[in-house]
Design brief:
The complex is a heterodimer of chains A (109) and B (115).
Chain A (H helix, E strand, L loop, with lengths): L4 E3 L2 E5 L4 E6 L6 E7 L5 E8 L4 E4 L2 E6 L4 E6 L8 E9 L2 E4 L3 E6 L1
Parallel strand pairs in A: 2-11
Antiparallel strand pairs in A: 1-3, 3-8, 4-5, 4-9, 6-7, 7-8, 9-10, 9-11
Chain B lengths: L4 E3 L2 E4 L5 E6 L6 E7 L6 E7 L2 E4 L8 E4 L6 E5 L8 E8 L9 E2 L3 E5 L1
Parallel strand pairs in B: 2-11
Antiparallel strand pairs in B: 1-3, 3-8, 4-5, 4-9, 5-6, 7-8, 9-10, 9-11
The chains are: A mainly beta (109), B mainly beta (115).
């Protein structure tokens, strides 16, 4: 079973625009992570936010976490063609990391 | 620093045949994971090792899947006999030991096609 659900399933934007995707989950968590997966490749860790944190930044990435709503969002600012990939949220509940189905992002030049 | 190594990258077999995948984690990473990723879905955890002991194998179809991690380093995932629905990418990941799951480092995956 998958804990997290991403929304939207797919997103198409132009270079320079911002991309926002959301993740909702069902049970309490220790932390929530976001990963990127380029086509045919493995997953790459982007950012981790702990349950007692509300917002975190890393370069062009901004992640928010609302534990009362059991939701998180990932914002990619000033997107580039190289940001084209699938993005997955993963929730850590007591040492068990579960992934959502992902958001497929396409950035066109 | 070398990443997580997996082989083979691609494998095509017929149903009821057997297949084995190999994973070499990042040096010093005590925790090793095998995930199954079906096309269009997120990775699903099959088994998690801490050193050479199994931490979680609740979603491993034990009638056909087996995994071992001898000496707490390399790991092998075996499927015997394979079914059509086993067609997927098998991802190996490793991480530093932690009471709370931290960042996972993934290999490139082994893509299995069962005909």
């Amino acid at each position: 079973s998958q804990q997290g659900e991403e929304d939207p399933q797919a997103l198409s934007i132009q270079e320079g625009e911002n991309a926002t995707m959301n993740c909702s989950y069902k049970t309490s968590i220790n932390n929530l992570q976001w990963y990127r997966q380029n086509s045919g490749r493995g997953l790459v860790h982007l950012i981790l936010i702990r349950s007692n944190e509300r917002e975190k930044h890393s370069g062009r990435l901004r992640v928010t976490l609302d534990t009362s709503k059991k939701s998180s969002s990932l914002l990619i600012t000033a997107s580039r063609a190289a940001d084209t990939a699938s993005y997955f949220c993963a929730t850590d509940s007591w040492g068990k990391l579960q992934f959502g189905a992902g958001t497929q992002v396409v950035v066109t030049p | 620093e070398a990443g997580v190594a997996q082989s083979p990258r691609y494998k095509i077999i017929e149903k009821r045949q057997s297949v084995a995948f190999w994973c070499n984690p990042i040096s010093g990473h005590a925790t090793l994971y095998w995930y199954q990723q079906i096309l269009g879905q997120g990775p699903k955890l099959l088994i998690q090792f801490q050193n050479n002991g199994v931490v979680d194998d609740s979603q491993l179809p034990k009638d056909r899947f087996s995994a071992e991690r001898l000496k707490g380093v390399d790991s092998t995932l075996k499927i015997q006999p394979a079914k059509l629905e086993d067609s997927a990418v098998y991802l190996c990941a490793s991480s530093l030991p932690s009471s709370l799951t931290g960042e996972l480092f993934f290999g490139e995956g082994s893509r299995l096609t069962v005909l």
